[in-house]
């Protein structure tokens, strides 16, 4: 922004100026690593696997009422309401219906909880490169 104003050259001169600078940035990264080792005897092939600890999470559906009507349609007996049966609430939780999902149990640091299992077997001819 700037203003320059000359009333009579070399007698009165006014100048004004302003500047504004703003910068913003955000970065976040997260990760995890763990190290576990096994000793594999000669002429054997070894590997490790994580046997994850899993849990089942159950959730009940919630229905949202936008309009509810009861009584004979098109007559004076029909009642329209914008809550469940005119009772003042518009969310209904169904405890008779549910959804089950399976997910990992996590450690406090966010890594998957589980047990490391070490396995080994004799070398086969198909293992050679």
Note down, in words, how this protein is organized:
Helices cover 0% and strands 43% of the residues. The protein has strands spanning 2-8, 12-17, 44-52, 54-59, 62-64, 68-70, 79-81, 91-93, 99-104, 114-122. The chain is elongated and about 90 Å long. By secondary structure, it is mainly beta. The N and C termini lie far apart (71 Å). It is built from no helices and 10 strands.
Beta percentage is 35-45%
Helix amount, in percent? under 10%
Q: Calculate the terminal CA-CA distance, rounded to whole Å.
A: 71 Å
**What integer value in Å does the Rg equal?**
36 Å
Q: How would you classify the helix and strand content by structural class?
A: mainly beta
Total number of helices: 0
Low-confidence stretches: none
User: Main sheet?
Assistant: 2 strands, antiparallel
Number of strands: 10
- Categorize the overall geometry: elongated
**Rounded mean pLDDT score:** 76
Strand neighbour order, sheet with most strands: 1-2
Helix and strand pattern? EEEEEEEEEE
Q: What descriptive keywords fit this protein?
A:
10 strands, 129 residues, mainly beta, two-stranded antiparallel sheet
Helices and strands, with pairings:
Layout (H helix, E strand, L loop, with lengths): L1 E7 L3 E6 L26 E9 L1 E6 L2 E3 L3 E3 L8 E3 L9 E3 L5 E6 L9 E9 L7
Antiparallel strand pairs: 1-2, 3-10, 4-9, 5-8, 6-7
Can you summarize this structure?
The chain is an all-beta fold and 129 residues long. It is 0% helix and 43% strand.
């Amino acid at each position: 922004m700037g203003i320059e104003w000359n009333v009579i050259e070399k007698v009165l001169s006014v100048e004004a100026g302003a500047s504004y600078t703003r910068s913003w940035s955000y970065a976040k990264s997260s990760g995890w690593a763990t190290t576990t080792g096994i000793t594999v005897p000669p002429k054997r092939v070894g590997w490790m696997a994580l046997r994850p600890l899993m849990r089942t999470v159950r959730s009940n559906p919630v229905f949202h009422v936008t309009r509810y009507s009861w009584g004979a349609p098109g007559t004076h007996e029909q009642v329209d309401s914008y809550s469940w049966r005119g009772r003042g609430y518009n969310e209904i939780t169904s405890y008779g219906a549910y959804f089950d999902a399976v997910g990992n149990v996590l450690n406090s640091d966010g890594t998957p909880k589980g047990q490391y299992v070490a396995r080994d077997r004799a070398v086969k001819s198909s293992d050679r490169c």
